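We modelled the chain as a single entity of 471 amino acids. Its sequence is:
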Amino acid sequence: MKHLFIVLATALLLWSCSSEPETTTLTIDIQNAGFEQAEMTMITNFITWGQNTTSAEKNEEGLFVFEKQLDHDQLVFLTLGSRRMSLYLGQGGTLHMSADMDNWEESLTFTGDYASENKFMLAHNKEVQPRFSQNQTFSLISNGTPEEFLEYIKEMETETMGFLNQHHKENRLSRQFVDFFKTDLDYSRYSFLINYPAYYTHFNATTPNLSSDYFDFLDDALNFTDNHFRVRSFAGFMGEYVQYYLRTYPENLPEDADNFESQMWVSNNVLKGKARYFTIANAINSALNWGDFKKGEKAFLEFREQNPYQVFTDALQGAYEDALRVAPGNPAPTFTLNDIEGNPVSLSDFAGKVVYLDFWASWCGPCMREVPYAKELKKEFEGVDDLVFLYISVDDDPGAWRRTVEAQNIQGVHLNVPGMRAEVAESYNVKGVPSFFIIDREGVIHDNNPGRPSSGELIVQQLNTALGLEL
């Protein structure tokens, strides 16, 4: 479970435009800033999580000024030096924010058209959110009873709505914001409820004893309109509902269907209208980036012809083009980077060899869990000189990268780029770490989603195939 404020701070996005864009102006006055540039980021869709980032330099008056053409209310993400925060902006109007970096909590103030909404978000973060933290929630899931968990969720709803209503009375909130917040709260609650049985089983190695009417909340959750697609928690819930259906009704699924085919079946046979096409788009995006690219490509080309919601097609088009760049059979993107000793290394240096490429980071738990398996994998191919284990760290801190390689005794060729938005990582369509690729002797992508070292015989077979060592 994420903090409610974090859900709120990433939630609002309108999929459809109801009117012409208007200019919204945000001015930011930061004392003791220590930086000359601020950034504003907006999420462009809930399928690929595309982002649009703009920057503003401090002007002659010492202000950072953003002017955005908005056709709907939404939340934006600010980067102010070392601080990140979210703001609510509407269509047209102004918001002025001021703060002192040396006294942030006490000095942060808002004035203008959207001041009340942003004051509410700030107050909610301070006064309500700490009572329903991630640690508290998972502690209750692992140690409490289903009855206690349901009471906790009810308390969260009651306290949050009470806080909203009181603030609304004292500091009039816009109707659009109130509707959004209520929808977000509802679908955050539905999300917790639909995932609770799986979480409980994970922590307790047994299924919870639920009442026969436990899932009655789904009647309300599935009674939605197209406007609900404005809210991130609703979009997340739809994906969770598909997974719930897969877990709960496996007997309804086509025989021998893989996960992607099963998701597509649920979308096409259980859901209707916009929800059907939204969940299909989600499944296709996953296949393009982390699954069977050929299946994802075929599904996308069909979807592009049949989908009546152009915004979903537009979101997937970019994902398809990015994934196509590193699809099997295409040349692997070239690069030249300095290795851990400071020597330049190019992909072309490994011509005639097979490369097992691993994008990773020292802060990534799943990456670090692969380290001992990778050591065993290297033993399996000991003496195979035409297989290269190439690591590209996306650590922003080169020191952390170097220390981890040394401390973990990770053998191979080691390179580093500053984050997943770095050119090399983006050229390989890296959406998360770890991400693996097999590149053949001609520098062509052999597999853009091979097994991890922990997959055992799967990755051994895949590397043998690339090496031409199949028995």
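As a brief sanity check on the tokenised model: The CA atoms of residues 191 and 237 lie 6 Å apart. Residues 1-18 have pLDDT under 50 and may be disordered.
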